Prior knowledge:
binds zinc ion
Amino acid sequence: MATQVYISRRVVTPEGERPAAIVVEGERIREVAPIDRVPAGAEVRDFGDAAILPGLIDSHVHINEPGRTEWEGFETATRAAAAGGYTMLVDMPLNCIPSTSDAGALELKRAAARGKCRVDWAAWGSVVGNNQDDLEPLAVAGARGFKCFLIHPGTAEFTMVTEAELRAALPHVVRTGLPLLVHAELAGPVERATAGLANADWRKYATYLRSRPDEAELSAIRMLLTLCREFRFRLHVVHLATHRALDMLREARANGLPVTVETCPHYLHFCAEEIRDGSTLHKCAPPIRNRENRERLWQGLREGAIDMVVTDHSPCPPEMKRLESGDFKAAWGGIASLSMALPVMWTEARARRFSLGDIARWMAEAPAKLAGCDATKGKIAAGMDADFVVFDPEAEFVVTPERLHYRHPVSAYMGETLRGVVKATYLRGNAVYADRQFHQESTGREYTR
Ligand SMILES: [Zn+2]
């Protein structure tokens, strides 16, 4: 087995950024050594001042295969991931058909993924209205945890859960020891707000924003924390969009509740004041809120009240975005961002004096822990998989369709100048993407431990 060495002046390890030589044997990191201690006879790649970060882990992706491969798919999603510096994706259980609500559906997903993946992947199962008895078998079959919705998710095959249904499912979830990821908006506040907007102009972003008030998130999180106190399940709040929930989340954690929180690049980059009317590419749920809210989410990251940043990459065919009419009510909600998330995050984080170490913590280490793959993924350290992204943090580029690589090259970020370029992505010691070229073979596989 040939020893390979990756050198950089800026290797991002859990202890911080430093000049180092990453010594790789086979698929694993043997050690992270000083630059002057490169083993004799090793194959050396010197990346100079380009940084080496751990391969990013995206624990919130909608791959939509099988069943809606015309929206996305394993081949295109993992290609965009490789170009974006990700080495592992965890697929959400909805928008695919069937949704991943029992072990049989997970087997169909595996069959669909076979031979198509450029990076590693794993799957979340679902908690829906009637699958309580399928949860433990799903865990045995290899689901990394479960996802549920407290509001209608927008597709017919996937049902939301009521509090009563959640109560029926939670003892099973607890027995698996796996996390429950929750789309935390309650329908009541959204329905009441929407009823008052019957005659509003739905081309206006402000109308859409008013239809999904902070209170929908706040009331959902309040209910979840009550259930968490009672059942002690591992609660993970997905795509937090309102800063107003941070106080109660902080307090819950201070009281020892097992709660983690994610937000997404679009909530940290865009703000409602700057979204043009009719720009349905910016529609997602919960919605992108105002500028002050954005800055307070950054503050939440700084204080550790938000643990991680994941994409919620949720593409659809462009027609479904209703770009001609600009109708926020009719447009599909979801923002595709797999290949752009790292430069978007670095552009914003750097401007607020965060480090590449913070990026690695939010976008690799914490999601790896959530998905239970942190024994071998999520950081640069001895014994871990040799998953890296080589990233030039000083270079700039403009977002164009040919840089997106997912199925439909549309983006809310189109035309923006971003800071930081992914030079190469290594999966278990092999380049899957380098200098804007993809490796010929698809070597990604399911993470199954
Ligand atoms: Zn999602």
